Request: fold
Amino acid sequence: MSVPQQRALKTAIPGPRSQELHARRVAAVSSGVGSTLPVYVERAGGGIIVDVDGNQLIDFGAGIAVVSVGNAAPRVVERVHQQVADFTHTCFMVTPYEEYVAVAEQLNELTPGEHEKRSALFNSGAEAVENAVKIARAYTGRPAVVVFDHAYHGRTNLTMALTAKNMPYKHHFGPFAGEVYRVPMAYPYRWPTGPDNCADEAFEQFVSLTHAQVGEENCAAVVIEPIQGEGGFIVPAPGFLARVAEWCADHGIVFVADEIQTGFCRTGDWFACDAEGVVPDLITTAKGIAGGLPLSGVTGRAELMDSVHGGGLGGTYGGNPVACAAALGSIETMRAEDLCGAARRIESVMRPRLAALAEKHPAIGDLRGRGAMLAVELVKPGSKDPNPELTAAVSRACHADGLVALTAGTYGNVLRFLPPLVIGDDLLTEGLDILEAAFAANA
Ligand code: PMP
Reply:
């Protein structure tokens, strides 16, 4: 690997060159675009990000669950080089090409369920979710979409409406798209009557609210993340997903699994739905699919995907050949290097360490997630009151010590860990040491 797999701090974080670039950025880039950690990147690979000051940081973020195969993964680089040299764009809607078809074939094969499937490709996660809703509406002839508390589905107008959290995603950006209805999520840690009742009661509320406030016959789709991402890595109470999916099937409602963050080996399976035997009608994918190039997809039952009028789906860049080549290299890497197994190995290293940390620090209220998608929720000791201040302090301390750690959660009180699946055990352990020290110094 060309990037040395070692943490090394040469300057304070951020260093002087990063600070210079940051000053240029402030003068040139809209302040509406934020950055978690303004070190400016020179190279990255494996579990390391090298900044312009020569600092080598351990990556527990993978560009928000994108570079699961690692940055500049060799098979991705090779295929992208070849594709860039062959042709960069013709527009699949004008003169198509094999790479798009090959990605669709892979998606149809890898996503849950043995039924006949079709796929369509887009650029961003939000665009995939928008298209899933379009397809569900076209198929059912119904308008309404049901989504959940703590959901995140994107930042376009429709997906802002689907997303739960106001700040920073929706604030001042309304009015939002209509016919979107929100119901409680089966969130075990915060379920009012306790985690044991969560699946049953959340399912009952989902059914009664959907029936009373929407009406089954008006409902095109239920859209859900099988493990919520930005909302705080909330794993729904066991059985909840399957019951929602079954109820949707009974009422002709399209069950859409948004696997944009959970998909492509992240949770230890190809898709998070696999762990519960849930087969969605439509599944949205992005992020991990293409090793860092922008690509997203909607995959689903052939009769649904083919119910849209010809020309109804598409976009200039959707399924761009370079992004498709990257996806083929990325999927090949996942198969060849068993990255689902790698995600499970990462969990086997991280979970016991995080559990020990939780034993020691009462501020850790909950430890949850699956595979290489793990998180701790921080609270004020002795209560479940969210503790975003401590979350920010711990994450700042991690950054200063050369660990890229991310936060999440409706209340900003979740530290989430999403390392590249190719990270070595040494870096994983060192990252956890840094996290432990950050808790010791701040909690
Ligand atoms: N859905 C989920 C579950 C996501 O995690 C994200 C991105 N965080 C999106 C949709 C939106 O993806 P994008 O940022 O590529 O539009």
The radius of gyration is 21 Å. Residues 339-360 form the longest helix (22 residues). The CA atoms of residues 74 and 381 lie 46 Å apart. The domain at 16-72+339-442 is CATH 3.90.1150.10 (Aspartate Aminotransferase, domain 1).
